[in-house]
Amino acid sequence: MAGIEKLLERFLSVPKDFTWEELLRVLTHFGYKKIKAGKTGGSRRKFVDGKQNLISLHEPHPSNIMKGYAIRQVIEHLKAIGHLKDE
Q1: Which of 8, 22, 56, 78 could lock 83 by a disulfide, CB 3.0 to 4.6 Å apart?
Q2: Which domain holds residue 70?
Q3: What's the whole-model pTM score?
């Protein structure tokens, strides 16, 4: 099993220790790029793919561990646009 496949399997299990960096690898795999924010962007990060599908997330801090609800939101978004199959 390739590295990204293992990461996707881990991502879909909604682990309690999934990091922001791991999420960035998942989004990059599906063609998402970070949109530059203005001066008052705070910790909200936006990502867009080639088809203008937008994901807006709160970057966790001071820890880099993602909240479960945020992981589930990304999973639902990726399923809705056809990147992930609904199991």
Answers
A1: 78
A2: 3-80
A3: 0.88
